[in-house]
Write a structure and sequence with these properties.
single chain, elongated, 2 domains, mainly beta, two-stranded antiparallel sheet
């Protein structure tokens, strides 16, 4: 099965559907994408589709509802989870939202949580 994400005008995934491999001539990505989009546009015209991989073989990760499509990431764009905090920055190389500061590496602290109010990581006990 091939999987296709429907994205809205803001590049947010609003639906993910399966397409039988016979409908895409059993072609691998990226050759399969245009065939799949043409097939879907016959069934559901006027929508925007991007192929996604349930095995994360392309476009960084599988597109979940609410994920964002970023055309500037990778060779074919990528899917990214929603931004966790408003002050996080987009990393086009990894197609992920990243904290402005790296998480501390302190073996005495079990975990850290980003605190937007102070713009830094805070130890969580």
């Amino acid at each position: 099965m091939a999987h296709f994400a429907e994205i809205n005008e803001n590049n947010i995934v609003i639906n993910v559907i399966k397409v039988d491999n016979l409908m895409i001539n059993d072609l691998p990505f990226p050759d399969s994408e245009l065939i799949g989009i043409n097939f879907l546009n016959q069934l559901l015209p006027g929508r925007t589709w991007k192929q996604t991989s349930i095995n994360n073989n392309f476009r960084f990760r599988y597109a979940g509802i609410g994920y964002e499509f970023h055309s500037e990431s990778g060779d074919h764009g990528g899917f990214c989870p929603p931004r966790a905090y408003s002050d996080w920055l987009f990393d086009t190389e990894n197609c992920l939202w990243q904290a402005p500061l790296p998480m501390p590496a302190d073996s005495n602290v079990i975990s850290y949580q980003w605190d937007s109010a102070i713009g830094n990581w805070k130890a969580v006990e």
